[in-house]
Design a protein that fits this description.
alpha/beta; 8-stranded mixed β-sheet; 30% helix; binds zinc ion
């Protein structure tokens, strides 16, 4: 930089010009530090977030969409919302297909020795019609050509559908706290990997395989989950260091919910160690028998259906505009859905409780939405967007689209908020820089520029609503808890959750009070041409 003359005044003027040209500078945010202080005090001194998690996970978990658990959890949440004085408390229903819940599961090795087996029937699996003792066999069927090899050989058998998987010694990172290395990584935008080729019609083959097993009289299919043995990736900068062993299972896949619901045979995911033992015995021609009892229930769509749970704190002078806080209430059935996502749901609930208890009078309406169907493909948040905001295919916008000031999401587990993913929205950086400054002592320092996916903020981002996922310490989320049979309240970290809910309350308040809604990215282009 060249200083034009010696006077300090003109140096400052030049410096200001230079800065303005180099970086997008937002007007100074008029933050209400007294209000932020009150929010922090209510959130830290009188937190109820662990109580919300207890009810959502220990009492009403699992909360599979279309099951009694999620209905009871939603009824309980609505009761709390009314107790706190929130308004417009209601459920919004959308089409889901058949619901499902587990009634009973029992599996024991009986030959060569008695041994209880750790496992869990996959969601939407049918039952076995009572207890069965059956011989176990290996069958590797990966395409329709393999059907002929096994035709006539599987009747009355339990099929092991995968080869054994190596179980490695525990090593590498299990708990992910954002250290300097991770923080530096989060502040970059990686170049995306090349898009892979088509994967063929997996759904069609899966349905044919279900029909084959059924027609051949197979009693049940056992698997041991994904092929991940922790060796893949290698780098310690890998977000997905899952440890699918040590009695922790991550059942994959789910049966159909449509007219094919219950059409296959029971599929049970086993602990890899128990699965591998059976494979090793069979490879040496030593007979393996199990006793198995799977009882499941399919729930008619008419009685259950998918739904979202909604409530709000009405705004004042900008009441028609909305700051939306969202988290998915539904879980997989394999545990109690504690970190995926009772934690996010409880944090959002607690944020509203804090704002109400601290006597905040937001300018914009602050609305909470607890989604259903996230685990089956962001179904609840997509239904909300379709109903209220926009058609993602044609990008036809509804009037409410212009009224959403921001959408914030929490769905990466029990960790404290370390920052926010800005979802490639370049204009929010100077605003968020100011919002996080009074939260730096709580560890909130990271503005991640990249777009992240795989949860409900995507439904809003893809129609051009400013939508953000909080960046949290993942802790054991990837390695142990999410989608596993061990996602229980034991793995929820109290101090982190108190911080998470409080930080979210501050973000919601700041978004509800600023003069303008948050800046938007360019509107996405329609996926389909409008009809002529
Ligand atoms: Zn999940």
């Amino acid at each position: 930089m060249r200083i034009a003359n010696g006077k300090l005044k003109s140096f400052l003027a030049v410096a200001a010009l230079f800065t303005a040209a180099a970086f997008p500078i937002a007007d100074s945010e008029k933050l209400d530090f007294a209000a932020i202080g009150k929010i922090r005090d209510e959130g830290f001194a009188r937190s109820q977030v662990m109580d919300h998690i207890f009810w959502l996970a220990d009492v009403y978990g699992p909360r599979l969409t279309g099951s009694p658990g999620i209905q009871q959890a939603s009824d309980w949440a609505m009761g709390r919302f009314r107790q706190w004085g929130l308004t417009n408390v209601h459920q919004e229903r959308w089409k889901f297909g058949k619901g499902w819940s587990l009634v009973r599961f029992n599996a024991n090795l009986v030959e060569p020795q008695e041994q209880p087996i750790i496992g869990y029937p996959q969601s939407w699996s049918p039952g076995t019609n009572g207890s069965n003792v059956a011989e176990v066999v290996r069958a590797q069927i990966t395409n329709e050509g393999d059907f002929a090899k096994y035709r006539g050989t599987l009747s009355g058998k339990v099929v092991l559908s995968q080869p054994a998987r190596v179980v490695r010694m525990l090593e590498g990172p299990i708990i992910l706290r954002m250290d300097d290395k991770w923080t530096a990584e989060a502040m970059t935008t990686p170049v995306p990997a090349p898009v892979g080729g088509g994967r063929g019609n997996n759904a069609e083959f899966a349905q044919k395989l279900r029909e084959f097993y059924r027609s051949e009289g197979v009693v049940a299919v056992f698997d041991r989950g994904s092929n991940n043995d922790m060796a893949a990736g290698g780098s310690d900068l890998t977000w997905e260091q899952q440890h699918p062993d040590g009695g922790t299972i991550f059942p994959n896949g789910a049966g159909p919910r449509d007219e094919h619901a219950g059409s296959g045979v029971p599929v049970v995911t086993l602990a890899v160690e128990h699965y591998n033992r059976m494979v090793r015995l069979l490879e040496r021609n030593i007979p393996v028998k199990v006793s198995l009892d799977v009882d499941t229930k399919f729930i008619d769509e008419a009685t259950m259906n998918g739904f979202n749970t909604i409530a709000e704190i009405p705004g004042s002078d900008l009441a028609s505009e909305v700051v939306l806080l969202g988290a998915h209430l539904d879980s997989h059935p394999y545990a109690t859905g504690a970190t995926d996502n009772a934690t996010g749901s409880a944090a959002m609930m607690e944020a509203l409780r804090i704002l109400k208890a601290a006597g905040m009078k937001p300018r914009r309406t602050i609305r909470i939405a607890l989604w259903g169907g996230e685990e089956q493909g962001l179904l609840g948040s997509r239904a909300y967007v379709r109903e209220h905001l926009a058609d993602v295919d044609t990008m036809t916008l509804k009037p409410e689209h212009a009224k959403i000031a921001a959408y914030f999401n929490s769905d990466n587990g029990t960790g404290r908020v370390r920052g926010i993913w800005m979802q490639s929205n370049l204009a929010v950086r100077p605003i968020f820089e100011q919002w996080i400054a009074p939260l730096a002592d709580l560890g909130v320092t990271i503005l991640g520029p990249r777009s992240v996916s795989a949860t409900d903020h995507v439904s809003f981002d893809e129609v051009g609503v400013p939508a953000f996922q909080f960046l949290v310490d993942r802790l054991e989320y990837n390695s142990r808890t999410h989608h596993s049979n061990m996602d229980t309240v034991d793995r929820v970290q109290r101090d982190d959750m108190i911080q998470q809910a409080t930080v979210i309350a501050v973000f919601a308040y700041d978004a509800a009070m600023r003069d303008e809604k948050l800046p938007r990215k360019a509107l996405p282009t329609p996926r389909t041409r409008p009809s002529q």
